[in-house]
Amino acid sequence: MSMQEMLRIGDDGRSDALERELKEKLRLRGNASPAKCTRQEQRWRSDHGIVDARERFMQAYGRLRDDLVGNDSCELTDEARRWLAQMIDYNVPGGKLNRGLSVIDSYLLLKQGSEVTEDDFFLACVLGWCVEWFQACALLLDDIMDDSHTRRDQICWYRRPEVGLRGINDGIILKCHILIMIKKYFREKPYFLDLLEIWSEIALQTSLGQMLDLIGTHTGADDLAKYSIEGYRRIVKYKTAYYSFYLPVANALLLSGAKLQDFSDLKDILIEMGIYFQIQDDYLDCFADPNTIGKALGHADNNQIEVLHKNYGKKDSSSVSEVKRTYAALDLKDIFSEFECRCYNHLVTSIEAQKDCAAREILKSFLKKIHQRKK
Q: Which GO terms describe its cellular component (predicted)?
């Protein structure tokens, strides 16, 4: 189903009934983990006194950070090591950690029925933190390019008076750390080259997606007609969906011994889910995105278009208020609500069509986290 088809307004009654039916099929319960994972957690609780994966994940972070700060590939001064430790702590672990934890969740679902050793779980944590390191690098550099002020409820790293544009190099260091971790812990694994290949491929796709976004923002500010659903979809597919949704699962698949080429359908659905997620994100961010402006221009009259041309892309509060007021008048909230319902139904149908049980459970866990989220 195309994005336009999912955005088209249809029969609300049938749509609601279908959603209820599909939601029942999915059985989106509070705990979707299989029984095997629960037993593993119970064993870990008794053996190690550790209750959940998040706590174990955070313990792995401390070990990885200390290893990277103490890395002897460069003769760093004590001052430089202190800077490095502070920079990592400020930028890497402060978010919700959904991407990193998704590596662990997906790995446990793929290994259900098999024992997961302490070493195996730690390797899943390493790959999870690699994804979080990548996220931190992307956000740090994106904040500089977007001239942002805050990130994760604190001032952006580069806006700290002692950092400034030195933050560009810090972002590059964070990306280099990923290769150090992968080489240290996976060099002898049979899937090592596959791991390097998927990381290299998605790092390039993400950078190119950022380039498309920067070009679109620059040209679109001068000509709103250049904003389109197709262009927006292309940007978020490469800038966000690949590394946020497919990369965690690809890492889990390789760690479990699977071949990525055997899960192409899983990849396609995850990418669609990533696009859905980013549209949600932009909607929750008060409509300040190309997708919304493109949709608005399709519904606006001449006076409303003139208001958008005059005010869109400006950061002063009066211009922002004018744009939001126009969006509200165009009932974009109703349009988004209809889109979300149709996108959800399409994803549920695609998930239920998957023959592999673990693949279905992975997709359900992702969809459960993002469907109708409020933040």
A: cytoplasm
